[in-house]
Amino acid sequence: TWWRCLEKRNTYKEYFGARRIQTWWRCKSFQHLYSDYASARKIQSWMRGRFVRQGYIEQLSAIKFQSILRGWLVRQNYAEYIAARKIQTSFRCWVKRNNFIRYTAARKIQACFKGWTMRSLYIDYICACRIQTCYR
Q: What's the first-to-final CA gap in the chain, in angstroms?
């Protein structure tokens, strides 16, 4: 029994030793593959970053160009805008003036009509008073 335990112990040592050697060998073989994979990933990430940076620079230049163009167009159309605004304000003033003249004319006509009706009513009232004083 003693020998059997020793044999088992030796076989376990051999088994674990072989296992340790196999793991070391697998690790070394995969390290080479992983270093190739890692270097490929580094190159790909660098290229992707470069493409993104290039696209961002192009986008910034497009934005700048658009803002310059819009500013130029606004400055070109500003004179037309001022002219249109002057025409609109003068037209509005003319409309207000005409409305005021019409309103004033209507007010004068109404005042004249009211005066005429009051005078005619006053004359009728005075005539009625005279007639009534005569009969009393």
A: 168
Q: When comparing pLDDT for 37 and 63, which is higher? A: 63
Backbone CA torsion sign across 75, 79, 82, 84: negative
Tokens 């805008």 identify what position?
Answer: 81
**104 vs 21, 92, 107, 122, CA distance in Å?**
115, 18, 5, 26
Q: Tokens 């990933």 sit at which residue?
A: 41
**Structure tokens belonging to residue 134:** 């005569």
- Each residue of 76-133: pLDDT tens digit? 888 888 888 999 999 999 999 888 888 888 889 999 999 999 888 888 888 888 888 8
Two structure tokens written together for 20:
């340790």
